[in-house]
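User: Fold this; tokens only.

Assistant: Input:
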Amino acid sequence: MRVHAQWHLDDRRVIDAHDLSTKSGSWGIGKGLSKMIFAQSFENVKAWSSKGFRPAIAIQLDDSFLTDLSTPDFLAMLTEQYHVPPEMLAIEIMEESIINGKDIVRDILSRLRIKGFKIDVLVEGEGENILPMIGKLPIDQIVIDMSPLSKRSNFHSDMETEFLYSSLTSVASKNLIKVCATC
């Protein structure tokens, strides 16, 4: 189950999760909004678990958390506070966050993995940017959002896309990383 926030404007328009993630950073509210989403998600998981429903949850992490050394401890504190095992949660980050990131991003991801969290990378497109980095990243799963590609007229017969996806799944598999795609 993937957790996403939406922002409902007064004129009834909705800012979707991806646009909200982008805009919240420029508005300076990304980290605060993410903390609210984490707290609400953990509260829901705790309530569901008490009723025997224990879904795996993927929550997108705002980029500001990826350069904050207190992030792993903050998330571990939330798991303790809400009695939610960290292995039930996948921390989802965008591919560009890793590509544009520094060594501190890998450090944060490594610390999260040590604390028991799963790390998912959301890739938009064909995955050619993450491919050469796979063996160097502490990640558990790559989620490829193929919706931009599925609009192409030759989507089902595009040999280049098929080759890139096959290469990505092969390299990921050798590194014990799962790959899935959404449209």
